[in-house]
Amino acid sequence: MTLFENKKLHFSDSKKTIKDYKSGEKIDVYLKIQGITKKTKKDGSPYLTLELMDKSGKVSAKIWENADHYFKNLQEGGIYKVSGFVGEYMNQKDIRIDVIRALGPRDTDFDETDFVEKPAFDTRETFDEMIDFMKSHLSNPFLLQLADLFATEHGDKFKNHYGAQKIHHSYIGGLLEHTYSIMKLAVLCSEHYKLDKELVLTGVLFHDIGKVYEFNVNPAVEVTIEGGLLGHLIIGNTKFLELKSRINGFPEDLSCKIQHLIISHHGEKEFGSPEVPKIPEAFLLHILDLLDSKLKIVEEALNNSEVKGLFSDYVQVLGRRLYVPPKG
Ligand SMILES: [Fe+2]
Ligand SMILES: [Fe+2]
After folding, report:
1. What is the pTM of this model?
2. Residue 33: how many CB atoms within 10 A of its CB?
3. How far is the CA of 293 from the centre of ligand 1 (A)?
4. Which domain holds residue 16?
């Protein structure tokens, strides 16, 4: 085999998708930019980190040279032709971009729909299932009304949103998956600990609704003004108050407890909660939220790691390497 043939073998075609990238290979593909951040190298010069996506998934990338030029000219939400090298950083695939250019008239060998993120499950069906599940555990007429109002007012945006900008559940349907998962656990735990199940379920439903307004996911994942200045706990609380105001005679003490669950669900003031949990139901919501996000982070880290030994690379958000049982 000649050197030329060897090189050709490792050069992927433009139809290759992110999930097929292998460490060590060169790519020359179309990708959509979801996010661009300018950072500073140790020597003080700038570089860029990019979040890139296609319909198969997402990947991080870096541009080490001409960062100021690219930062000025690249647009979040735009599709570009990207040539580079697939490496690894912090246990994840990471592209070193050599050339990235805007599309020209000759770039016809791709389809716009290749860059539309598709949820992995039927979000409409799952959302309806979640609301039905919740209502089957409710008897309080005010909370039943609130669940219906939530569905009509926020349902469409909620089911098409991410669970987080990065780190866990950051895909369409992620917020729904996360919320429904906690809801199922909330029923089991509320019954086990003899807590107010209806209060916990309502807190679960509203706890992350603020994320829908905290950051946009299309055309790029980007924090909104109210997201950056208020955060999703305060926004979520406001959304609850808006809906509650449409229900005549909603009990004040119940309203106060629901608000408490929403604003205390991060558990500690240093994690963004204006108040810490002070009733058992709020402790439960906080713990279940943490449980669901932590286990998702572990699952995603294990799924994304290409392991050579028994342990994954360092997973920064968990502060450790994970044991990966040998396959087979
Ligand atoms: Fe949250
Ligand atoms: Fe959450």
Report:
1. 0.83
2. 22
3. 10
4. 3-115
